[in-house]
Write a structure and sequence with these properties.
The chain has about 45 residues and is an alpha+beta fold. It has 2 helices and 2 strands; from the N terminus they run αβαβ. This is Transposase DDE domain-containing protein.
Length: about 45
Amino acid sequence: MTPAKVKYRIPLEELADEKGITYVFDRGYVDYNAYDQFCEDKIFFVT
């Protein structure tokens, strides 16, 4: 977790890398290509 004031963006692939886990993302991390890959890799998420 980072404070809201942080101005950098961590790639989603660095945050979500375990299959079978459900991740929760802030809307600031919207990356549809990454979400598509998560679905293919059976990585679950809520945003």
